[in-house]
Amino acid sequence: MNERPKVLVVYYTQTGQLKRIIDHVLGPLADSVDITYEELVPVTPFPFPWGKQQFYDTMPETVQGTPRGIRPLEVDVNAHFDLVLLAYQPWFLSPSQPTAAFLQSEAAARLLKGKPVITLLGSRNMWLNAQEKVKGYLHKAGAKLVGNIVLVDKSPNLISLITVLRWAFKGKKEATRFLPPAGVQENEILTSKRFAAPISQALDNKKWEELHPQLMSLDAVELLPNLVLLENNGISAFRFWAKFISAKGGPGAAARQGRVMMYRLLLLAGIFVLTPITLISSLIKLNLKRNELEQEVEYYKGIRLR
Predict the structure, then answer these.
(1) Any stretches that span the bilayer, and where are they (predicted)?
(2) Which domain-ending residue is among 205, 222, 239?
(3) pLDDT tens string 55-83
(4) What phi-psi label fits residue 224: left (phi over 0), alpha (psi between -120 and 50 degrees) or beta?
């Protein structure tokens, strides 16, 4: 009698949304696969709901990849797994700090070496730079990225920004008279069980090279070209501000709070004032560089690392 495939799920969630996504993706496999869950736990927990200043003060170290530490893993890092599912959220266009802390750890290097890995993202709408960083960490660990699934909030950009900030700062996810619920739409979560079949097939036949094309045929990753341009602009700004703020000290340092406040105010002003301008410039670039952008979209929808 053959042993059941063993899957390790590594994840971090503050709101519980990502765990619900995981449960729906893997739910159909529960009777045929042994699943081990490893929740990443920061040594000093991040608050939820967030205080506004603390939220924005978290940006520099997130963008620079110098995260707060996490507690030792409960899983045996020498245990055998046929597949690792890494589920994470982007923070400030970068992997969340607990995710980055895990991927930079010795435990991750031992767990991931030689393993096929599927990344699963629950995100507002911008995840490209975060996934590029994760690809790099996985490559360094000797893991093989075999699939990517991205669930995003499909509300218009500004609407999703308003609802996610309300959720982050006030803990209110539900719809109001004028706003939809925050986060990934419920139907997107419920229908994510469609990804279980190709994952199960890959676990059985070990033809990992066939998995991502099968996931893509089920719309595992959808990407609008203008988001490539918006992210390129956004990550450049975040890197500048991360360097500018961290020059005045580490997380929570009093000396850097004035710069954090400047960043807070300029970021929000930039989003609400410049978004229409950026949209127009993006449309122009889309027409001028359509072929180049289409190639970029295909790259980001894939699993290859440049």
Answers:
(1) 265-284
(2) 222
(3) 999 999 999 999 999 999 999 999 999 99
(4) beta
Type of residue found at 170: K
pTM for this model (two decimals): 0.95
Closest CA to 139 of 131, 128, 127: 131
d(CA 200, CA 216): 15
Number of folded domains that form the chain: 2
Same domain? For 254 and 211 the reply is: no
Please report the pLDDT score of residue 292 as a whole number.
Answer: 85
Residue with tokens 């990517």: 148
Q: What are the C-alpha distances in Å from 133 to residues 35, 73, 136?
A: 26, 22, 5
CA distance 39 to 8: 11
Cα-Cα-Cα-Cα dihedral sign, residues 116, 132, 223, 169: positive
Q: At what angle do helices 128-141 and 225-246 cross, to 10 degrees?
A: 70
| Measured distance CA(176)–CA(161) in Å, rounded | 15
Q: Taking the chain (306 residues) in consecutive chunks of 10 residues, what is each chunk's mean pLDDT?
A: 89 97 97 97 97 97 97 96 98 98 97 98 96 98 98 93 95 95 97 98 97 98 88 91 98 97 88 68 74 90 96
Q: What are phi and psi of 133, to 5 degrees?
A: -65, -40
The dihedral sign for the CA sequence 234, 124, 211, 115: positive
